[in-house]
Each structure stands twice: as C-alpha cells, then as structure tokens.
Design brief:
Low-confidence stretches of chain B: none
CATH architecture of the largest domain in chain A: Orthogonal Bundle
Low-confidence stretches of chain A: 254-259
Largest interface: A-B, 25 and 34 residues
CATH class of the largest domain in chain B: Alpha Beta
Number of domains of chain B: 2
Oligomer: heterodimer
CATH topology of the largest domain in chain A: MetI-like fold
Shape of chain B: elongated
CATH architecture of the largest domain in chain B: 3-Layer(aba) Sandwich
Number of domains of chain A: 2
CATH superfamily of the largest domain in chain A: MetI-like
Number of strands of chain B: 20
Strand order of the largest sheet of chain A: 1-2
Order of helices and strands of chain A: HEEHHHHHHHHHHHHH
CATH class of the largest domain in chain A: Mainly Alpha
Structural class of chain B: alpha+beta
Shape of chain A: globular
Number of strands of chain A: 2
Mean pLDDT of chain B: 91
Structural class of chain A: mainly alpha
Strand content of chain A: under 5%
Number of helices of chain B: 8
Largest sheet of chain B: 6 strands, mixed
Radius of gyration of chain B: 24 Å
Mean pLDDT of chain A: 86
Largest sheet of chain A: 2 strands, antiparallel
Distance between the termini of chain B: 51 Å
CATH superfamily of the largest domain in chain B: P-loop containing nucleotide triphosphate hydrolases
Helix content of chain B: 10-25%
Distance between the termini of chain A: 14 Å
Chain lengths: 259, 346
C-alpha cells in the first residue's frame, strides 16, 4: 500500500518540520560538538566519553536510574491500563473527574510532592529508593494517562473485551492478551514517555536526598563540565537505543489491524 | 459437540427506570435454534447478554442443563458468541482469532491450530487463515467470528444480530450458512434479531418480544398463522386490519361471514386481522366492492393495494399470473379466502 502513496511537497509542512528540527537538534548537536572538544589540543576527540565510561560510578548510577525508570513503567501500566479500561467500559461519570485529576501533577509544585511523600509515606517506604518510582508515576501521569486514553478511544473496546471474555479470557488475560496488544502503539508511547521522564527526573530526587544518574551528572559537572556533557549525551543515546531495541522486538502487528 | 439445554426462569433486569426484562422465561432444547425477535429496545439483546454473563440479572435464574449458572462469570460459561459489530482482534491473524478460545483453555498450539483450520474450512475461509482481519470483507469477518465462537465447542451459541451490518445478499448467504453449521454441529443456539425474515428462515422456534416480555414463542408457521396477540400479528409479516362487527362468534368481511378466532366478546366493533395472501382480488364490473390503487409486480407474486367503498386500504398478495388484468382504477371484488380470522378490539 505504502508504495502507491505519493508524497506531495507542501511548503508549509516543510517549513514547520525545519523549525521543529532546528529546535530539537541544534541544542543536541551543539552539546555533542562541545562534548568532543579537547581544550588542550584545540581539536576534537573522545577523551571525555572515555573518561565517563571509566568512571566507576557511571554504570552504577545509570543502571540505578534505568532500573527505577523500569519500575515506574511497570507501576504505570499496572495501574493505568486496568483503571482506564474500567473507566471506558463503565461509562462512569467519575471518568471526567479522573481526567481532570490526572492533570494535577502539571500544576502542583514538585516540592509539594516531596513534602507530601515525607509526611505520608510509611517509614519503610521512605527508607528505600523504591519510593521514587511511585512519585515518578505521579509526575508522568498526565502524559501516560492521555497516551493510553487516546489508544483506548480508538478501538471498539467494549466489543473486543466482551468477545474475549465470552471466548474464555478472564480479566487479566483480556487485558494482557487482547487490550494491550491492540493498543500497542499507545502502550509503547506510554513506556517511552514514562521511562524518559523518570530517567531524567532531578528535582524530586534531590529533595528526597536520593542519588540517581541526573544528580550524579550534576555532581560531576562541578569538576568536569565537558565530562558531564559527554555523560548527558550518553544518557540520551542509551535509553534511545534501549527503547528502539524494545520496539523492534515487540512484534509489529496491532497497528496494521486498525481501520 | 457438548451442546446443552438452556432455561431462563423469571429473569428481570432494569436499567435505571427502564424495565429491560420483566419476569422473562425461555427454554431452548438441546440442539435447537431459537430466535428472539422484536423491535429495538424490547429487551432481546439484554436477554442474550444475561445468558452470556455480560449483564447480571436483577432477579431470576439462568440454567444450563438444569445447572444454575446465574453467578458464573462470563469467561467460565463456555458459550460462543457472535456480535453485531465486527469483534475480531485486529492484532491477530484469522487463524489466531479462531484459536483464541482454545488458547484461553490452554490447549496446545498444534491442536488449536488444527481445530482452527477445521472450523475455517467449515466456513470456507481456510485459504485466508494467515491474513489479518482488516483484510477481510464484512461477511468474511462475521464468518471468522462464527468460527471463533464454535472452535471451543461451546455448550450454547449466542448470536447477537450478527448479520445486521452486512449487505442484503451476504446476509441471506450467511444466515443459510449459520443454519447449516448449527444443524451439522447440533449446537444449541439463541439468535437475536430484529429482522423477522431472518428469524423465520432459520429458526426452529421464534420468540417475539415486546417491552421486556415474551409475547409468544412458537414455530415460524404457527407464529405466522396463529399469532397469540395483536402485537405478534402485526409485528410478524404483513397484516390487514379491517374494521368489522362481531356477532355470535362470527364476523362479516367483504360480505362473507367467517369464524372469529378470539373468544370473549360476543358482539361489538372489532378489527379483523387478515394476511394479504388470504384476500383475493377479482376484476369485476358487476358486484365490485373496491378499486385497485396500485399493483406491484414482484416476480412470481404481485402485491395489490385496493381501497374499499368505505375508504379502507386493503393489501392482497396473489400470483402474478392471476393479476394480469388488474390495473390502478380497476373495479374489483375482494373476497376472503380463509374460514376463520383473528380479531382484536377496535
């Protein structure tokens, strides 16, 4: 089908894409150019990247942040997919209220979350770094919620849910074997958004006195700004590669099934 | 095939102030195909959903082979269901869709794919097994849905207006196919439709519903020829309602006295309910009692609309061969061909 589609040149679209490209890529390219400078020789080299990889804390903190981001993704999917499925199926008036509530993290200052966590979380939760994913989940809620909501709106949810149940699937199997694969695009977007937001979260982590990859980069920047930029570039590239690999390994099926 | 009987006892269901089912009773025998027929909002789909476990009744009992399954969740009821809307899983191929029920029952992959191909062969779509569902036509999708509903050998097959989204010719073909499959597999089937032709064509018995109540359940012949109520009479098939006078159990129609099928009132004004095929129209200039308004040729038969001297519109269905001399404006004599008619209060 794709072979038959002729892409017409549209000047307005080209200009928009150009501006968007400049906005996104110029800072990244500049940072990259800056990170490969070698001030002593005045040329370019991989010195700072080699330095960063040799830093023994690099792997420790990036793995920690990725692990916390992974846990956040699991919490997000585990809580949001069943909740949104129920909200869509029940046609409840509560849905409007929850739609609104899901936007609150955008307007509540992060410091309020930090203070709230210190007041309300039980001590055994506060004593573990695993308190962060619960808070990251709240911060990612406005984006994750909307992404899944759009996916569920675009499918005949009631019919396929009932078809799955009448064919013998319990609720768990209905969600995992039918709903999630059918809205795979939305789920992947949710994973990417939540993962990226969790991986880069700084303020809340600092306020709660935890060390993760972003806080470590800040610490490194105090002594070696070029090294810190090299690390930041890697922190952009590594999750991107991981998400790309995940996308490639999940079978590409559901999108083509939609009409 | 492990088909079982189905019994609904005193089922009631409300949605807010709306009564969907009011003390609803129904029995479907093993291997029988029963259709629930009725206008929109009469409760027929609700009844089907209660059987499937997709709605829970406010009161009453659902029995399968005399076992109470009222509180059994939908996924444990072992009932295949085909929906009005296309309900195939878009992320799965045709064969995976058909094998889905067996996968949920933890049947090994080889066995379930073999079974899926058997069913696809039965519905004539084995060659499409590797395709995705959006690559199929509407009729093909409903065939796959039927195969999916039958693949795990359900105790009862539930059909929720599965043909209503299809083109006329596809509908006719698929309904015949549904009947053929149902008979060959012996599956107890409950079929919900608002299309009386569909219901009459393939069902062993048809239940006519109105306002959450089963007005009558009978064979298509009996339902057509001996409707139990005025609603059934007017809902099933076409019916002339001709004002008449009843006296001593007899009514006079077009100058002939015939037996009134209703007991009760012995005299007074009534409406006689007469099928178009029970009225003959004969061209005459001597003793005419009506004029032809239109004649619609429909192949073997023709539909004649007449107006009596009293201004009553009467419809007649006759063989085309016998209506060749009838034209709009023709003077005609209407005659009733039946010895008895159903009457209802005027």
């Amino acid at each position: 089908m794709a072979k038959g589609i002729k892409v017409r040149f549209q000047p307005s679209l080209a200009i928009t894409l150009l501006i968007l490209g400049i906005f996104v890529f110029v800072p990244m390219i500049s940072a990259f150019e800056y990170s490969i400078r070698t001030p002593l020789t005045g040329g370019y080299g991989w010195t700072h990247y080699i330095w960063a990889i040799r830093e023994e804390d690099f792997l420790h903190y990036i793995l920690r942040s990725m692990w916390l981001a992974g846990v956040t993704v699991l919490i997000t999917l585990f809580v949001l997919v069943p909740t949104l499925t129920w909200l869509h199926l029940s046609n409840s008036k509560v849905r409007g209220l929850i739609d609104g509530l899901s936007l609150l993290p955008l307007v509540i200052p992060v410091v309020a979350f930090a203070v709230g966590a210190q007041i309300s979380f039980p001590e055994f939760v506060q004593n573990t770094v695993l308190e962060l994913p619960f808070l990251y989940f709240v911060l990612a809620l406005p984006y994750a919620y909307r992404s899944l909501d759009i996916g569920l709106n675009s499918i005949p949810l009631k019919t396929i849910t009932e078809a799955a149940r009448s064919a013998g699937a319990n609720w768990w199997r209905t969600i995992t074997a039918v709903i999630i694969p059918v809205i795979r695009g939305s789920v992947m977007a949710t994973i990417a958004l939540t993962f990226a937001l969790s991986l880069g979260e700084f303020t809340l982590t600092v306020l709660l006195h935890w060390d993760t990859f972003p806080t470590w980069v800040t610490f490194v920047a105090q002594d070696n700004i070029l090294g810190a930029i090299a690390i930041s570039m890697m922190s952009l590239i590594i999750p991107f590669l991981i998400l790309t690999v995940i996308t490639l390994f999940v079978p590409e099926r559901s999108i083509q099934g939609r009409k | 095939m492990s088909s079982k009987s189905l019994k609904l006892q005193n089922i009631s269901k409300r949605f807010g102030n709306v009564i969907a089912l009011d003390n609803f009773n129904l029995e479907v025998g093993v291997g029988e195909l029963v259709a629930l027929l009725g206008p929109s909002g009469c409760g027929k789909t609700t009844a089907l959903r209660v059987v499937a476990g997709l709605e829970h009744q406010d009161g009453g009992t659902v029995l399968v082979a005399e076992e109470n399954i009222s509180d059994v969740p939908a996924h444990k009821r072992n009932m295949g269901m085909v929906f009005q809307a296309y309900s195939l899983f878009p992320n799965l191929t045709v064969e995976e869709n058909v094998a889905f029920g067996l996968q949920m029952r933890k049947v090994s992959k080889n066995v379930r794919l073999k079974k899926a191909h058997e069913l696809l062969d039965l519905v004539g779509l084995d060659s499409q097994s590797k395709r995705f569902t959006h690559q199929l036509s509407g009729g093909q999708q409903q065939r796959v849905a039927l195969a999916r509903a039958l693949a795990f050998e359900p105790e009862i097959l539930l059909l929720d207006e599965p043909l209503s989204a299809l083109d006329a010719q596809v509908r006719v073909n698929l309904r015949e196919e549904i009947r053929r499959l149902q008979l060959s597999l012996g599956t107890t089937t409950l079929f919900v439709t608002h299309d009386q032709e569909e219901a009459m064509a393939i069902s062993d018995r048809v239940g006519v519903m109105n306002n959450g109540v089963l007005e009558q359940i009978d064979t298509p012949d009996a339902l057509y020829n001996k409707p139990a109520s005025s609603f059934v009479a007017s809902f099933v098939g076409t019916m002339n309602r001709i004002p008449a006078h009843i006296s001593d159990g007899m009514v006079e129609i077009f100058g002939s006295k015939v037996t009134a099928l209703r007991r009760g009132d012995t005299s007074g004004k009534v409406h006689a309910l007469i099928r178009p095929e029970s009225i003959s129209v004969v061209a005459t200039t001597v003793r005419s009692n009506a004029k032809v308004l239109t004649r619609s040729f429909m192949g073997a038969s023709s539909n004649i609309i007449c107006q009596t001297e009293d201004g009553i519109i009467v419809q007649s269905l006759m063989t085309s061969a016998s209506t060749g001399d009838l034209h709009p404006g023709s003077e005609v004599q209407l005659q009733i061909l039946s010895n008895e008619v159903l009457v209802t209060n005027a």
